[in-house]
Amino acid sequence: MNRYIPLVIILCFAAFTVSVFAVNQVKTTETFITSGDGEVSSATTTTFSLYIGDDLTGITNPVKSAYIPISGVYTTSGGGPYELSAKLETDNATLQTFTLPNVGTTPTPFEVLYKDPTSPGKINPASAGTYTYTLGITLTNMTVYGLGAKAVVSHEYVPASCADGQPANEKVKTTETFITSGDGEVSSATTTTFSLYIGDDLTGITNPVKSVYIPISGVYTGNGTILVKLDDDNNTAETFTLPNVGSTPTPFEILYKDPTVPGKINPASAGTYTYTLGITPSGVTVYGLGAKAVVTHRYKPPTCGGGFAATGYLESSTFDTGVASGAAYNWILWDGPAKPLNTHVKLQLATSNCANGKTNPPACDDFGDWQYYGDADGNGTCNTTEYYEPDPNIPAEIKCWVTHNNQRYFRYKVTLCSVNDCTTGTGNATPQIGGASYNGVIVNWSP
Description:
By secondary structure, this protein is an all-beta fold. It folds into two domains: 1-16 and 307-447, Jelly Rolls; 25-299, no CATH class. 1% of the residues lie in helices and 48% in strands. The chain has one helix and 26 strands. Strands 11, 12, 13, 14, 15, 16 and 17 form a seven-stranded antiparallel sheet that branches. Strand 6 (83-88) and strand 7 (96-99) form a beta hairpin. The longest helix has 4 residues, at 401-404. The chain is elongated, with a radius of gyration of 31 Å. The N and C termini lie close together (7 Å). Mean pLDDT is 86; it is low at 1-23. Residues 1-22 form the signal peptide.
């Protein structure tokens, strides 16, 4: 008795098509400003740069939100008031003063959110480019350890005619990469290797990394320092002094930034980059030590309106023939419209006596998995690098009897190619399987 299993596939992979947006969009980026590696008890200023890569043409006041989280651990002295003041560009009109409670000699974590009170504000780019600002922080009757700050800016922009813009319209994004999370106490040197992936086109961009910092946090006891460095290079070392908290568990967060120029984390092209973060506590014990890398980079969007991806594939679900002793597999075909010129539909078949694709029935618990085979020459010498490539609605005989026969379960894999070599570039058309009046994929077998 012959059987067939149909599956309708309208399209196995998406095209890179032009998308037109009706409204402007908004994005948020984070830019590192400063991270103190010692104690601060007086005025300090830091210059930082903000990069905007989007089209702001025609947008009134494109910056929708700009604020600066300022954090650290503080103690107080004297009779008060106990204040932290922040301003931009040494302009007193931008001054905002935060009054903190008297904590005496008890180190206490804090975070305040500074926002320029002027309108529209100093941080107000009107076009794409790099903008430089100066943040001033003044402390009154306070000492701050691990003083850190970053700029969080949300801006409206005009989307390009395709989703990610044109290559000429370089853009910027912020990504966060997990580094480590300790589940015990740490009181000596520890190192962690982590990988940063850049998937964007950085071609022709000078210094694409615009901001890199590593927030390190946890709860500590004791009195001492935390030294941080990258790739075991002492030139990248930064030592943070923490106040004496004795045996009182105290939360902390420090913002580490490689002091070298341009820095260890400085990818120049797409790819995976590996780094080692070293953390050495001295005189302190840290619980729940955690770290992540926050990287803001400029990139070049891909060309829009191109075509279809070179290759896409679909693996079917598992089919049960119901034949305990296994079935004989006769032929496989696909049904759909005629293929466009220089496109391909490629089929493969996988069989097993285990419903999960394992190779050791009846236990079915080894490390095996579904293996898809094809037969390019039709001579029965099948392997995983060959395919059946029949024209639509033309059966391809399955001669891989040793491989497939007497197997109860099966799957098939369909590969669609929009270019002739199935590899290079993008295609202008794609083959289609299934749809109205078509049967999809058919596998014919006998008990």
